[in-house]
Design brief:
By secondary structure, this protein is α/β, with parallel strands linked by helices. It has two domains: 4-54 and 376-422, Urease, subunit C, domain 1, CATH 2.30.40; 57-363, TIM Barrel, CATH 3.20.20.140. It is built from eleven helices and 17 strands. The strands form three sheets. Strands 1, 2, 3, 4, 5, 15, 16 and 17 form an eight-stranded mixed beta sheet that branches. A six-stranded parallel beta sheet has the order 9-10-11-12-13-14. A three-stranded parallel beta sheet has the order 6-7-8. The chain is globular, with a radius of gyration of 21 Å. The model has no long low-confidence stretch (mean pLDDT 97). Its cofactor is Zn(2+). Its EC number is 3.5.2.5. This is allantoinase. Keywords: Hydrolase, Metal-binding, Purine metabolism, Zinc.
C-alpha cells in the first residue's frame, strides 16, 4: 500500500525557505511531507516536473465575481475556472457588483446559494460596510467573512455607497471592537472630478495621485485613533508609499496591496479608445510604476492581487469618461507579474511571497499560501520560460475584454492541484471561512 496519494517533484520547488529541489508528498488533501527531490516516497501517483517550477497555489484576495445579480458580467463558475487556469487556488469575493451586495447575513446567504456547486477553487467572502449597516458587521463577522470592504469615494454602483467621515470612523470603531479587518478603497472624493473629455489623459487627470495620498493619510490617522486593522486596496500611486511606510514603522496594523495592471502597464502605452485599460484608481506613468516596484521590494506593499473587475464589452465604450472602470486579469496575473518581475531581476520566491503567502496572511486564510507540512495540497506546475500570446477569446473569463489581449507574456500554468486533486473541469471548490 502506498504511503502517499501523490508526490510532485521539482528541481525548482518554491517553499517558505526558498527555491530548492524538493518532493512534495500529499496524503488525502494535505501536504504530508516536503522531502529531497530524489528521495524514495512510495505514492499512488508520482509526478516529476524536472526543471519546471512547483509553486503553492496563489491566493487572490480581491476578486469581483458579481454573482448573483450581474452574472452576465462574471459568475462563480467562469471566475473560478479562470482562477484555476491562472494558478489561483483560493480567492475572496468582493461584496459589491453583485445584487444584493454582501452587506447583511441575508445577502451572504444569497451569495452562498449562487456559488454552491459552481466553484472550481476555494472561495471566501468579504462583507461590505456601507452607510446604515454598522449593526450588520458583527453578525457577518460571526458568520466567518474575512473582513469588510468600504469606499471613501463613490464606488460606481449606487447600491454600494461610500462611507462619510463620521460613518467611516464609526465603522472602524465597530470593527476594532471585535478584532476584524477593514479593506478600503482609498481616494479622497474632494480631489476627484469628472473627466473633461473622452481621452485617457483627461481621465487620468481626473483621478490624481494626490487623491489617493490624502485618503490614505486620513485612513492611517483613523487606524491610529480607533485601533482598527486596515488594509489599503489597489494602491496605484507612489505618492502614498511614504505614508504607508511611516504607518508600518510606527507599528500600526496597516497593510497595502497593488495589482498586476499597475505593475505591468503604463499610462504612456494606453491606446486612445481602448477602455479595457480603464480602472479606478487609474494606471499611471512609467516612472510611477518603477516606484511601485520599489515599494514592493521594500515591503511597503505586501500583496499583489488582481482586483478582477470585469464587465460586458458593451460597457467598455470607447470613451474613457463613460466606460465602466475595471480590469479583467484573474487568469493572467501570474504570467503578467512574472514577465515584468523577471525582467527586473526578481525570482519566483518574490512572486510567491506577493501573490500567495502575504495575501493569505493578510486575510487570515489558514492552510493556504505556502508549500509546507499541514497546509492544503494546493500546488501549481509552472513553466517560467514559456511565452504565450494572450487571446482574450480563449480565456475562461465570461467576457473577452482585457488590456492584455494580444500581449506576449512569459510563464504558463501547466497543472493546478486543489487540495491534492488536479482541477479537471468539475467544480470541487469549497467555501472558506475566517479562522478564529
Amino acid at each position: 500500500m502506498s504511503a502517499y496519494d501523490l508526490v510532485v517533484r521539482s528541481r525548482r520547488t518554491v517553499t517558505p525557505e526558498g527555491e530548492r529541489p524538493a518532493a512534495v508528498a500529499v496524503r488525502g488533501e494535505t501536504i504530508a511531507a516536503v522531502a529531497g527531490y530524489a528521495d524514495p516516497l512510495p505514492a499512488a501517483e508520482d509526478v516529476d516536473l524536472r526543471d519546471l517550477a512547483l509553486l503553492p497555489g496563489l491566493v487572490d484576495t480581491h476578486v469581483h465575481v458579481n454573482e448573483p445579480g450581474r452574472t452576465h458580467w462574471e459568475g462563480f463558475a467562469s471566475a473560478t475556472r479562470a482562477a484555476a487556469a491562472g494558478g489561483v487556488t483560493a480567492l475572496l469575493d468582493m461584496p459589491l457588483n453583485s445584487l444584493p451586495p454582501t452587506v447583511s447575513t441575508g445577502a451572504l446567504d444569497a451569495k452562498l446559494r449562487a456559488a454552491e456547486g459552481r466553484c472550481h477553487v476555494d472561495v471566501g467572502f468579504w462583507g461590505g460596510a456601507v452607510p446604515g449597516n454598522v449593526k450588520e458587521l458583527a453578525p457577518l463577522h460571526e458568520r466567518g467573512v474575512f473582513g469588510f470592504k468600504c469606499f471613501m469615494s463613490p464606488s460606481g454602483v449606487e447600491e454600494f455607497p461610500p462611507l462619510g467621515a463620521d460613518e467611516l470612523r464609526r465603522a472602524l470603531e465597530e470593527v476594532a471592537g471585535f478584532g476584524g479587518t477593514m479593506v478600503v478603497h482609498a481616494e479622497d472624493p474632494a480631489l476627484l472630478r469628472e473627466p473633461d473629455g473622452p481621452t485617457y489623459a483627461e481621465f487620468l487627470a481626473s483621478r490624481p495621485g494626490e487623491a489617493e495620498r490624502g485618503a490614505v493619510e486620513r485612513l492611517v490617522a483613523l487606524a491610529a485613533q480607533t485601533g482598527a486593522r486596515v488594509h489599503v486596496l489597489h494602491v496605484s500611486s507612489a505618492a502614498s508609499l511614504d505614508v504607508l511606510e511611516e504607518a508600518r514603522a510606527g507599528g500600526l496594523a496597516v497593510t497595502a496591496e497593488t495589482c498586476p495592471h499597475y505593475l505591468t502597464l503604463a499610462a504612456e502605452q494606453v491606446p486612445e479608445g481602448r477602455t479595457a485599460y480603464k480602472c479606478c484608481p487609474p494606471i499611471r506613468s512609467r516612472a510611477n510604476r518603477d516606484l511601485l516596484w520599489d515599494g514592493l521590494a521594500r515591503g511597503v506593499l505586501a500583496c499583489v492581487v488582481s482586483d478582477h473587475s470585469p464587465s460586458p464589452a458593451d460597457l467598455k465604450v470607447p470613451d474613457f469618461a463613460a466606460a465602466w472602470g475595471g480590469i479583467a486579469s484573474l487568469q493572467l496575473g501570474l504570467s503578467a507579474v512574472w514577465t515584468e518581475a523577471a525582467r527586473r531581476g526578481f525570482g519566483l520566491e518574490a512572486i510567491v511571497r506577493w501573490m500567495s503567502a502575504n495575501p493569505a496572511a493578510m486575510a487570515g486564510i489558514s492552510r493556504k499560501g505556502g508549500i509546507k507540512v499541514g497546509n492544503d495540497a494546493d500546488l501549481v506546475a509552472f513553466d517560467p520560460e514559456a511565452a504565450h500570446v494572450v487571446d482574450a477569446t480563449r480565456l475562461h473569463h465570461k467576457n473577452p475584454v482585457t488590456p492584455y489581449d494580444g500581449s506576449t507574456l512569459t510563464g504558463v500554468v501547466l497543472t493546478t492541484w486543489l487540495r491534492g486533486r488536479p482541477v479537471d473541469g468539475e467544480p470541487h471548490g469549497r467555501f472558506l471561512w475566517r479562522a478564529d
